[in-house]
Design a protein that fits this description.
Layout (H helix, E strand, L loop, with lengths): L10 H18 L1 H34 L5 H48 L10 H45 L5 H43 L1 H9 L3 H56 L5 H43 L20 E8 L9 E8 L4 E6 L5 H8 L7 E6 L2 E2 L5 H5 L2 E4 L10 H6 L7 H15 L2 H6 L21 H14 L6 E5 L7 H13 L5 E5 L3 H4 L4 E6 L2 E6 L1 H7 L2 H20 L1
Helix pairs in contact: 1-2, 1-8, 2-3, 2-4, 2-8, 3-4, 4-8, 5-7, 5-8, 7-8, 12-14, 17-18
The structure holds adenosine-5'-triphosphate.
The site of adenosine-5'-triphosphate has 13 residues, from helix 9.
């Protein structure tokens, strides 16, 4: 993903970002946007007329003996009603727009979530991904409201300024100098302030991400036990305090500069130009040279102050537009990101049965890593074969299976399925041939059934139930399922349901393995990354038997550290430092008397010793 950490954006890019988000919002709810625009622009023009023409006419009526009291009263009533109607229309539109804006931003969030599923796994290894996503997601609602409301207000401001400028030019054009000069100073100083605030915000967010991680660890249940039983809170608290200290110094650093620019802005724009210069000039024109009347003084003073307010508001919006434009950059990068792997299109008909998976001289290096995690791996896995991958921690087994499922692309060599390089397939179609349980599988806060079906239900409830039942029987969860109050409709975890159940590590693993058996008829290759690590020996034995004998025609590739489970595999591959150092059946490897045999004997001795102790 594109790295934008310290990049400065040009005004053009900011505007283009803004247009991007506006277009995006327009696509979701065009009516809402047109509605807001129309009402706010009409209201700006209305206010401009009221602020000047009405005041001028009112004073002129009062000082004109030919105008009756009734005429003056009608003017006051009509103007007051006009203002009241405009203000309520504006209020109503804003209130009516709120729920629609919420719905619109909700849709945007949905599209962002959808986008996350299109991100290549490699993005998750980069902190830029988190910076872009976290900032874009956390600011989305604010940005969308900014874009719509501010642009409408800007339209209203511009319309009002045009009307007011026409009136000022008509009465006395010199007055136009004051708000214009004020506007220029305002734009410049506010731009500086906004830029500093943005930089400060980005720096703060980046630092606070670390603090937020530490905070999250403290309140999430999966960390609770370890936190209570260890002192992991010490480095985490240290990290939290460090982040806080860094945030404080960032805020201090920017705070001084922001205050200075705010002072310059206030002095020049408000105090000097508007509060003193304009009244002095108007007083001089009316009283000393007698070129304008009292009605003109009031109208001009109102008009210039109105123009200043409108320009101020315009400026405020421009400033927010710039801010939104910068945040929008992240949203845009995120939404425009095209997953190279996830979006890959190609052959959609993935061969199914009797297909060989061939790994040809594959090497893989993680982005940013100094060395290859996998080196020159060669393998040929026949359809229906049961393959075990063994080896020490960090040898590269999990990385290897991720390559098989095309979660990452190989750095060198190729993986072929049915004679095609897997990069030739549409990724989503290719992945359908797999069923998998990862080492770090997750259970979700929904029912047991949903945790097994994983959103792949076809709507036929009885058939689905049967499938889940069968799958959980084979994964060894059946007895526990029978004890659950609502069977497979029991919610897992108590996060959202009082009657939810918390499962033990082994039970949870059995539910996760159930996913594989539920998909049995639709998958061609089952991948299990340490499927039995949390199971007791009996459950492990049963799982093993089910996996090898009841997984149907499927090819099974499983990673295990317990060599007792790998014994029955057709072929065992021993990984070391990213290479395959031995391969063959259990018997062949034992005869070779190499690393595998040594590891196996070591584990067997351990089991025997344990048995003796138990006896
Ligand atoms: P274990 O038996 O402990 O599960 P493994 O054989 O499955 O280990 P892998 O998880 O494939 O090993 O890891 C192999 C090496 O790749 C390790 O040194 C690990 O630190 C590194 N590695 C794994 N994931 C990443 C990643 N996302 N980015 C960089 N390096 C990684």
């Amino acid at each position: 993903m594109h790295n934008d950490k310290d990049e400065k954006l040009s005004i053009r890019r900011i505007l283009s970002n803004y247009a991007y988000l506006l277009k995006y919002s327009f696509r979701i709810d065009a009516v809402l946007i047109i509605q807001i625009f129309t009402v706010l622009v009409a209201s700006g023009v209305g206010h401009a007329f009221m602020d000047t023409i009405f005041i001028r006419a009112f004073i002129n009526y009062l000082s004109d003996s030919n105008v009756s009291f009734q005429q003056t009263a009608v003017l006051v009533v009509v103007s007051t009603l006009g203002i009241a109607v405009l203000m309520s229309l504006e209020r109503c539109t804003e209130s009516l727009a709120r729920p629609r804006i919420i719905r619109m931003t909700g849709r945007m969030q949905e599209e962002m979530i959808q986008k996350v599923s299109e991100m290549d796994l490699i993005c998750y290894d980069s902190d830029t991904y988190y910076d872009n996503f976290v900032i874009a997601a956390s600011q989305l609602e604010e940005i969308a409201v900014m874009v719509i409301m501010d642009l409408a207000r800007m339209g209203s401001n511009v319309a009002a300024v045009l009307v007011l400028s026409g009136l000022i030019t008509f009465i006395n054009p010199v007055i136009a100098i004051f708000p214009t000069l004020g506007f220029i100073i305002n734009v410049y100083t506010k731009f500086r302030i906004m830029k500093l605030e943005y930089d400060c915000d980005v720096e703060k967010k980046r630092i606070m991400r670390r603090a937020n991680y530490s905070k999250r660890v403290f309140y999430q249940p999966e960390y609770a036990k370890e936190i209570k039983l260890s002192h992991i809170e010490v480095p985490l608290e240290r990290q939290f305090h460090q982040s806080l200290d860094e945030t404080v110094s960032v805020v201090k650093k920017y705070g001084m500069q922001i205050s200075l620019w705010a002072f310059i802005n206030y002095i020049s724009v408000y105090t000097l130009l508007s509060a003193y210069c304009v009244p002095l000039y108007l007083g001089y024109m009316a009283l000393v040279v007698c070129r304008i009347g009292l009605g003109d003084v009031a109208a001009l003073n109102n008009a210039q102050s109105s123009v200043r307010n409108q320009l101020d508001s315009l400026n405020y919006c421009v400033e927010r537009v710039q801010k939104a434009g910068m945040f929008c950059e992240r949203f845009r990068r995120f939404m425009d990101y095209e997953g190279k792997i996830e979006n890959a299109a190609g052959i959609t008909q993935v061969p199914w049965e009797h297909t060989v998976l061939e790994i040809k001289d594959v090497s893989y290096r993680y982005a940013g890593s100094q060395r290859d995690t996998l080196r020159h791996i060669n393998m040929k896995i026949k359809s229906g074969e049961k393959v075990a991958l063994v080896g020490e921690n960090g040898a590269g087994k999990s990385t290897f299976v991720k390559l098989l499922m095309r979660l990452y692309d190989v750095t060198e060599g190729s993986i072929c399925y049915g004679g095609h390089d897997i990069r030739e397939f549409t990724t989503k179609e290719y992945r359908k041939i797999f069923g998998s349980v990862f080492q770090d599988y997750q259970l979700y806060a929904t029912t047991v059934k949903e945790n097994v079906i994983m959103g792949e239900g076809k709507g036929d409830v009885p058939e689905e139930k049967k499938r889940v039942e069968e799958a959980l029987r084979q994964s060894g969860f059946w007895e526990r399922l029978e004890s659950l109050p609502e069977g497979m409709d029991t919610p897992l975890t108590r996060e959202f349901a009082e009657n939810g159940v918390s499962l033990s590590g082994g039970e949870a693993q059995k539910v996760a393995i159930g996913r594989l058996f539920a998909k049995k008829d639709e998958m061609h290759i089952a991948i299990l990354d340490e499927p039995s690590s949390a199971l007791d020996p009996r459950a492990e034995y049963e799982l093993n038997q089910n996996m090898l004998h009841k997984a149907g025609e499927a090819t099974v590739i499983f990673i295990s550290h317990r060599l007792s489970t790998t014994k029955d595999a057709d072929c065992i591959y021993m990984f070391e430092n990213g290479e395959i150092i031995e391969q063959g059946s259990h018997r062949e490897l034992m005869e070779q008397n190499g690393q595998y045999a040594e590891m196996f004997r070591c584990q067997a001795k351990y089991y025997q010793q344990n048995q003796e102790i138990t006896v």
